[in-house]
């Protein structure tokens, strides 16, 4: 394993986890309707952006500060839409959202805002072109995603 890959074990875990979930998400999206479908599509879009950057972090594709910045911008713009896509009670299947979202609404919104801020920081850091700093910020962004998923999304069995 190269030194680059050892520095970012969380990123590797994030990329592998995202890839493992994709087949199920793709099937689930086909059955979703309305607001649930909209938010699942938004999350899928953000996941694609994260995967691309994750592949760079793992050394699977070449690092491109411009690409990271563009992907981070898409994540930032998407994250700003999260609140509107979670109206209270929107739990019809195949949603993976847990009812605890509305019980802990302020915490949920705080994580959504943190996601937006971490993505914005990643955009700014990427412009500087320093791979190590950029990937360290990507790790922070990934931890924010993970924090929300841990608390507010159904676990796979």
TrEMBL record:
Heme c binds at residues 145, 148-149. Keywords: Electron transport, Heme, Iron, Metal-binding, Transport. Gene3D superfamilies: Cytochrome c/b562 (1.20.120.10). The keyword Iron applies. InterPro entries: Cyt_c/b562, Cyt_c_II, Cyt_c_prime. GO terms for cellular component: periplasmic space. GO terms for molecular function: electron transfer activity; heme binding; iron ion binding. The keyword Heme applies. SUPFAM superfamilies: Cytochromes. It comes from the Bacteria. PROSITE patterns: CYTCII. Signal peptide: none annotated. One of its GO terms (biological process) is electron transport chain. This is Cytochrome c. It comes from Sedimenticola thiotaurini. The lineage of its organism: Bacteria, Pseudomonadati, Pseudomonadota, Gammaproteobacteria, Chromatiales.
